[in-house]
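Table 4 source record.
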Amino acid sequence: MRIAVTGSTGLIGSALVRSLLDDGHQVVRLVRRTPAAQPDGSTELRWNPQLKQVDRKGLDGLDAMVHLAGAGVADRRWTTAYKRQILDSRVLGTSTVAEALAGLASPPKVLVSGSAVGYYGQTGDRVIDESAPAGGDFLARVCVEWEEATAPAAAAGIRVAHARTGLVVSGAGGAWAKLFPLFRLGLGGRLGNGRQYWSFISLQDEVAALRHLIDTQELSGPVNLTAPVPVTNAEVTSAMGAVLGRPTVFSVPEPVLKAALGEMAVEVVGSHRVVPGRLLDSGFRFTHTTVEQAIRAAC
């Protein structure tokens, strides 16, 4: 298949591209700079989501597109300006992709578009699947607009799947990568009261789930990409200590997190107990079902 990918240099995108290329697929990377030849055999296509520009000719004849581009939620403190960047990078990028695909003479059969479990807002200890409504906090509003921006593609008859991803367990990037150095130094510990649920997924399973969304024709709309059993932050702390063989005696009180992180602290001490109902119903099988397995795979 010929598959285009945005966000191909990010944690998830780069792993997805490697997986696709290893299996003999043709990969087209959308990049903001001048396209260049790639040693891995992928090709590049220029786009500028801020200006809603993309080389449509290069997209014609695709079998699938996976759209993962967006500013990192945990990259920096949430100032008013950075919150706008988080929103715009997703909504403008997604609408650029969706409108371009909708206008093609030979559009792809499927658009897999990134989203997040933040769609549901803070859910406490309630178990949440894809039938749950949107929350009302900042990230929930971002996810709602992010998903709505795919409307032109859906209206053109393209199957659209929203990959609502949880916390990806990896030491190579993403929010979880910031935990590994602390725990290896013996400085890791519970965040807040530790009772908040974290809906995690290993990087290997995330890539496999994205490919499952490409291949499974009956999957459209929201699909949660999380491991089957969410765990509390206290359980994550215990698992990290056990896998890395380090003590976990430290804890960071909620007021300290709020002082250090500002509004973003809500995501650290907030709770998302999200399960992958539609993914499991469609026959997907996880390689790493427990947080210990996911952490070991990331080491």
